[in-house]
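I'm stuck. Protein, please.
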Amino acid sequence: MATLVLPSPKDVRDLVEGLLGRDVTVSPGRPVVPTADVRAAVGVYVDDNLNLAAAAAADLPFCAFAGSALGLIPVAHAEGASEEGLTAAMWENFAEILNVGAALLNRDGAAHLRLYSTTSPAELPAPDVAELLRGFGNRIDLTIDIAGYGAGSLSIVRKAF
């Protein structure tokens, strides 16, 4: 049986701070579950056999603030995008954060995971990914506040094998 690895809030904070070069505060948050009414970006992570192993879902505010902070896009644009939707640059930047975020899921002795696909907040994830994100088990739900931008929510869910 493969070892399940979930990152700690400190792991998430360290990664986001390192990427953005800004102070970040991480605290327990609410689950992010994309629906037709709740827009969220999703990263799908697979093992070496292309088995769905984990997913990360971020609400629209976190996508806008993190994507903008990475690209040094002014906070006023990020605030508008957190309500209306991401620009192409914000989405591209946030997708890169999801890609680098695979590091949070990899540890010695655990199956190696990599980002397989992303779903923008304008789309719904595939049914198997949506089902994983609705699960109660192996997950961490966080509120992440990026200094100078704002706060949003991120959930990371591991699939049990």
